[in-house]
Amino acid sequence: HVVRAACSASRELVPALGTLGSRRKHTLPDLPYDYGALEPHLSGQIMQLHHSKHHAAYVNNLNATEEKYQEALAKGDVTTQVALQPALKFNGGGHINHSIFWTNLSPNGGGEPKGELLEAIKRDFGSFATFKEKLTTVSAGVQGSGWGWLGFNKEQGRLQIAACSNQDPLQGTTGLIPLLGIDVWEHAYYLQYKNVRPDYLKAIWNIINWQNVTERYMACKK
User: Which keywords has UniProt assigned to this entry (predicted)?
Assistant: First the structure.
């Protein structure tokens, strides 16, 4: 279910917006591990705040915005519908991005992927080391807040690296299917790494859940 959701992440909001009166509210997903499970690489305090405060705020604001959108639809109020689009994109993207991010991490992560994903990385980037360096560089270079991504280009059948600002969802912004996201908003690391984003980026490779990334890749190749 998680993998299927990832392959249609940017379309997740469409049924909710289009089904007047029967909208299912979005909920905060549970983490597949305890808040402190990713230590020492990410502290339990960061994970608790990030999940229970920041992600929860995106979910709550998304539900509230969708209710206003439903009301505008019912009234035929196009002006309000248009005015609500930025809030839908920001909070919807925040919900989509974080729902992927939590599963991209694991206390048993790190190392390198195996099998078809590793072969695809070697094919498209030359080596795993080169890929790791490129994604780290792109993530470090995001100005302000945003995300670094490994995505799958369905049309070209290859992997690509991209950066997105703020909470812009990868698929809706670039057309790439999200496989691995690195959150470089300061709330993802500041309590532990202060303003030294490169130290956070170095640490996060120790908890990347390559099994999850591989499952996403295999599902989206079909």
Answer: Manganese, Metal-binding, Mitochondrion, Nitration, Oxidoreductase
Pairing mode, strands 177-183 and 146-153:
antiparallel
- Which segment of 10-19, 45-54, 136-145, 193-202 scores lowest on mean pLDDT? 10-19
Residues linked to residue 105 through DSSP beta bridges, in sequence order? 208
CATH of domain 115-220: 3.55.40.20
Contact predicate 177/158, CB 8 Å: no
CB 125 within 8 A of CB 117: no
Is 183 assigned a ligand-binding role in the annotation? yes
**Cα–Cα–Cα angle for 41, 45, 50, rounded to 5 degrees:** 90
Superfamily of domain 44-104: Fe,Mn superoxide dismutase (SOD) domain (1.10.287.990)
Of 201, 213, 50, 193, the closest CA to residue 117 belongs to 213
* Integer CA distances (angstroms), 145 to 71, 90, 94, 140, 182, in order: 31, 12, 12, 10, 11
Mean pLDDT of the chain: 91
The answer to whether 26 is annotated as binding is: no
pLDDT score for 9:
44
**What does residue 153 show for φ and ψ, rounded to 5 degrees?**
-90, 105
